[in-house]
Specification:
Elements (H helix, E strand, L loop, with lengths): L1 H10 L2 H4 L3 H7 L7 E2 H5 L2 H7 L3 H8 L5 E3 L5 E4 L13 E5 L7 H8 L5 E5 L12 E5 L2 H10 L4 H7 L7 E4 H16 L4 H27 L4 E5 L8 H13 L4 E6 L1 H4 L4 E6 L2 H14 L2 E2 L2 E2 L1 E4 L2 H17 L1 H16 L7 H8 L7 H11 L28
Antiparallel strand pairs: 1-3, 2-3, 4-6, 4-7, 5-6, 8-10, 8-13, 9-10, 11-12
Helix pairs in contact: 1-5, 8-11, 10-11
């Protein structure tokens, strides 16, 4: 059953759906269309595991996270749409040379020490023979960078894949694409074969270095997860924020949950900043695999990177600048309730706040004050987002 579950999970994975044109036609471009269970049961790898036993297929599908089976057991679908962002090239490496008889499992086993492998492509000639190379897609970009930086694996693995005494070459796919493009350009310019090869290798090395440098800079900042598909109404903002904090917190430490119309402009979208890049990546991987729902709504998780991360950072800083004065008044009122009439928040806190402060949302700033001031009274409505008080077990004020 475990092998069957793994195979079915792979069929519906992002990595496979993006490349499996037949299955993508069945699920539709969003990846959530219904697929007939009988169709899945006809797949060669499924038949090799359970023959024609469709009940075994149905039972296995019900165990796969992120998959729903119809009540009559005749169809199945993904609960999460495919992400609009396809960053698979950033998570992929090129591996060569591979000797005849090399299998996907062998390649996956060889590279799995660098991180979780989600897809292995073994291109073949019309004759069915291997072309001698593979593309290996990892779950995380950092794994691809680590594998290409190592540029080789241990000797027993090299012997198994490339042959005894033959070094195994591992190159980032972006570097491979640069090499291929430069080689083509050099030949079009009329340069000799040897010159074209030398020029293409230099382009690959330059691209490899650029990928590694960019990854090093961005990995330290890649801690924000975007959550889309949250319930639009009927659930209190603080309840959803609390639920998000608890859900992400069981995977890795959370710094803040940014959820509310004032920050994202859309109540169905929230952001979670994790304490570390690894924690953020793991949260996306685990929660996506589980198909976790918030208040009955299936959501999509996306690790912000590149331009999307920069845009979010700029939005939060701009928001804090524009609301600094109002938040200072609010903070001073809260401080007086906590420390007595006439007292003011420390100057360093006000200055930090005016300068954009720690990369933090307005709502989270309020809840952080609330956590610090356990004795602060609740707002008049008991759950008023405009006042820093109301949940987390805060003690009621004397006048209530």
């Amino acid at each position: 059953m475990s092998a069957l579950c793994d195979q079915l999970r792979f069929y519906f994975s992002d990595a496979n759906l993006r490349k499996d044109r037949f299955l993508l036609r069945l699920t539709g471009p969003r990846g959530t269309g219904e697929v007939c269970v009988r169709e899945l049961g006809s797949f060669n790898r499924v038949k090799a595991l359970v023959g024609d036993d469709l009940e075994a297929v149905r039972a296995a599908l019900r165990l796969v996270p992120g998959i729903e089976v119809s009540d009559d057991g005749e169809s199945v679908w993904r609960t999460r749409e495919l992400s609009a962002l396809d960053d698979s090239d950033e998570r992929t490496v090129y591996v060569e040379p591979l000797q005849a008889g090399t299998s996907r499992d062998m390649v996956q086993s060889a590279l799995s020490s660098f991180g979780e492998v989600t897809y292995v492509s073994l291109p073949r000639l019309p004759s069915g023979d291997l072309k001698g190379f593979a593309f290996v897609e990892f779950a995380l970009p950092d794994a691809a960078v680590a594998a290409s930086a190592a540029n080789a694996v241990d000797e027993p693995t090299c012997s198994a894949l490339a042959g005894v005494g033959t070094p195994l070459r591992v190159m980032h796919k972006l570097a491979w694409l640069a090499m291929k493009e430069e080689y083509k350009r050099a030949l079009e310019q009329g340069r000799r074969e040897a010159e074209a090869q030398a020029s293409s290798l230099a382009a690959a090395a330059e691209a490899e270095a650029a990928v590694a440098a960019a990854a090093a800079v961005e990995s330290a900042q890649r801690r924000v997860v975007k959550v889309t598909g949250l319930p639009k109404g009927g659930t209190a903002v603080k309840a959803i924020r609390r639920s998000m904090n608890e859900t992400f917190g069981r995977v890795a430490p959370v710094e803040f949950v940014d959820y509310g119309i004032s920050n994202s402009g859309d109540v169905t979208v929230g952001f979670v900043r994790m304490a570390t890049p690894v924690g953020a990546a793991e949260a996306v991987r685990i929660l996506s695999a589980e198909g976790h729902c918030f208040h009955g709504h299936a959501v999509r998780y996306e690790l912000l990177r590149g331009e999307a991360l920069s845009a979010y950072t700029e939005m939060i800083i701009a928001l804090r600048h524009s609301t600094a004065k109002a938040r200072k008044v609010k903070r001073d009122k809260w401080w007086e309730r906590k420390h007595g009439p006439g007292t003011k928040a420390p100057k360093e806190e006000a200055e930090a706040d005016a300068n954009g402060g720690e990369f933090q949302s307005e709502e989270q700033s309020e809840e952080q004050q609330e956590g610090e001031g356990r004795g602060a009274k609740r707002g008049r409505d008991g759950d008023d987002d405009s006042e820093p008080g109301g949940d987390g077990g805060s003690k009621r004020g004397r006048d209530e």
